[in-house]
COMM domain containing 2
Amino acid sequence: KLSVSSDTIQHGVEGLTYLLAESSKLMISELDFQESISALGFSEELNNLLLQLYSDNRKEIRAILSELAPELPSYHNLEWRLDVQLASRSLRQQVRPSVTMKLHLTQHGDRDTRVLQTDPATLLHLAQQLERALDEMKTSHCGRVVRNIK
């Protein structure tokens, strides 16, 4: 009926879905949404229809997006123990330290326990990498990325 290919229709629907989902995710105002779609070169009537569609369905789209987001386990508690093997039958002068951690996680109200064991050097390296990641999050570039993701 429209005299266009199915690929064109599919791309149009995907583009409209992306526009509405991203706009709802970022909770942009109606004025910002109108400025964004005016750059697309549509007619004034179509711009007003898109604005009306966005303002009518913004909350429902956000609710659907929040249901689709994966819920990751969250930290509840951590128990740890330092073990040191001082000697064995074959080696009398041996020192092998290890750190055993019992990580308690919560997901959907259920508790889960994970036991991890590592040597202190690997644990120190992991802590340094996490500290670097935290420092990286403080940069202005990461701040812009995080704001755009939310």
The chain is about 55% helix and 20% strand. Residues 72-118 form one domain. Residues 44-68 form the longest helix (25 residues).
